[in-house]
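Holo prediction — guanosine-5'-monophosphate.
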Amino acid sequence: MSKLFVISGSSGVGKGTVIKEFLKRNPEFKLSVSCTTRKPRAGEVHGENYFFLSREDFETCIEKNEFLEWAEFSGNLYGTQRPYIEEKLSQGKKLILEIDTQGALNVKKIIPESVLIFILPPSFEELEARLRGRHTETEEAIQKRLASTKSELENSKYFDYEVINDSIENAVQKLEEIMK
Ligand code: 5GP
């Protein structure tokens, strides 16, 4: 049985909320903490939401081959540290990576038994409304994120499962069916 689950979905699709609720109900799963060069949002904590690194430090990690995968998303770098994942998996933990679609496909290449799940919005209009309603990004950042939605959807056809986030309850239940 696979112990590594990779969840992707467009910005604003609500995947963070769905995953949070899933983790509350299924404490045997753990969310992997990624590294990023993006600035922390209000309330985000280093080591909990992300390891926030300078671009220079991130690039040093790339040079040292410390990332299982990394990707540039919306002008920032994001990556999953290899030793971190190996340690958690060797402890028998069931691990969730919440990463973008390029990263997800790279993980699948390296760890073929990983399970890829794509979370879809009920509609594109809904997605745009959610992204704006979050009030965490500038207009420019929102436009960049909406533009990346298309390529993310394109990549999603290689995923193992799709889950539509029409309600948190439905989406969590679907995740439980897939992951348990
Ligand atoms: P956000 O800035 O909203 O936290 O994340 C932006 C995007 O980066 C999301 O699609 C998120 O899933 C993705 N992401 C977060 N961590 C990683 C990572 O370690 N690797 C990759 N490839 N993408 C990541």
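READOUT: Helices lie at 15-25, 55-63, 82-90, 101-110, 124-133, 139-155, 168-179.
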